[in-house]
Every structure is written in structure tokens, then in C-alpha cells.
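Training component of the fellowship. As part of building independent skills, the fellow (R.M.) carried out the full modelling exercise for a liganded target. The chosen ligand was iron/sulfur cluster. The inputs are recorded below so that the supervisory panel can assess the work.
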Amino acid sequence: MESFYTLQGEGFHAGKAAYFIRLGGCDVGCIWCDVKESWDASIHPQISINQIVSDAKAFAGRLAVITGGEPLMYNLDELTNALKQAEFQTNIETSGAYPMSGSWDWVCFSPKKFKEAHPSIFEQANELKVIIYNKSDFVFAEKYAKVVNKKCELLLQPEWGKQDKMLPLMIDYVKENPKWRVSLQTHKFMNIP
Ligand code: SF4
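Fellow's submitted model of the complex:
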């Protein structure tokens, strides 16, 4: 769908320079999705893996973040192998709704209520990032904290439009449940993509 060089704004790697590769196509259907234009893959151009990697190499950073849409709708072995050959660190942001593929340095698993996650991600997730839109999302977050591997970092992130309402509850929740930490969408405060 698009690719751009920016800073990773959220999650464990927030603040780092990163080349984002956003793949078109998603059937998860989150009501608060902020990239609904990604859902229909057919309206986006097809770009060869060689071209994607060569475009990424034009910038100084060597962290590539594959996102979507839902990137795991595709087998990502070839893309990630090519990025690694070009000495990129490969990170993915995914709802986990499809079986894992690809070769990853960091897996950010952000499950969604709208489509159940495929269990193949539980062992590979480095980061569980749950979006807090309403109070029931705390229960949803704990459900996934129980099934991911023990080393997985646990993050709660307010949905942007509900931040004023949910953030105070999240701060209290993390103080009571310190295995979690808060993630904010800092790119939105910085006005960068
Ligand atoms: Fe949007 Fe991501 Fe949800 Fe798909 S999984 S609907 S791209 S927020």
C-alpha cells in the first residue's frame, strides 16, 4: 500500500528510526481502525520485493517494520529474507489472525476482538500490545497474556480517540498489575506518519 521512513511511534521500539512497509489487505474489521483504506488490497499497486528493498536502502535506518492491513494474510518468507540479506532488522506488527510466516527479529502481536488470533504466534511474540478502547479490553488483554510465551513484553495502548477517557484507568491498572506497561502513539503527538 505504501512505504515511508519515519520513527516507530509506539510499542517496545518507540522512538527508533524505521522504514515502514504497509501491505494492503485486511479482513479483521476493527471498528476504530485508522487505516481503513488498507482493507481492499486490490486498490493498491503491486510492487516487487526487489523494489521494496531497494527503496528501503535509500535511507540510513536499518530497521524495517512490516505492517498493514494484516501482513500475515501473505507468506512473508521471501520479503523478510530479502530484507535480512540487505542487513535490515525485521519487525512485524500483526493481529495474528493468520498463521505465522517470515523471518523476524521482533514480533509485535496486537490481537483484535474482531478476529481470533492463530495460535502459531503465541511462542514467537516478543511483544503483546493490546489496544484499550473500553473497560472490557483489560479482560481481553489478560486472556492473551496467559497464552503468550513467558518472555513476551506486555503493553497496553489507548485507542487514540478514547485516550482521554481510558488513559487514567490504564495508569491505575498498570500500577495494580505491574507486569504491564503503557504504550502511547507518540507519532501522533509528533505529527509524523
Ligand atoms: Fe485495521 Fe489493523 Fe484492525 Fe486490520 S487489524 S482492521 S488494519 S486495525
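The panel noted the following from the submitted structure. Residues 26, 28-30, 33, 35, 38, 68-70, 95, 112 surround iron/sulfur cluster (CB under 6 Å). Strands lie at 2-7, 17-22, 63-67, 89-94, 106-109, 127-132, 153-158, 180-182.
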